[in-house]
Amino acid sequence: MRTNIYQAELTQEAEIVHRKTNVGVLHGLRLFLKSPAALQFADPGDDRSAVTFWFRDLADADELLIAMRNAVDAAQAQALEPVTLPAPCGICGNTDPYQRACGRVDCERIPF
Taking the model in full, what pTM does it have? Predict the structure, then answer.
């Protein structure tokens, strides 16, 4: 399975959660995502969008974070130039080449 999460969806909020299972305690590294207010309710529970990576040991979570940091460092060392987005659509202002933000048929950001 592959999941794509874009920078615009990320927040700077993360937490560690723990869950007892039939195989022992699992530890989760949870990254919160931005979600529309319409999806959030006044429940006492936290229903915000998030992605959770589950580990048997927090040291494994630390290894994942180190691997991610190493990948970023390696890419920066290669001096990769950032991708430049196309000019915004003159109708809706959208810059995503794969999505029509306005939903209009005449949007200049029609994919493909």
Answer: 0.60
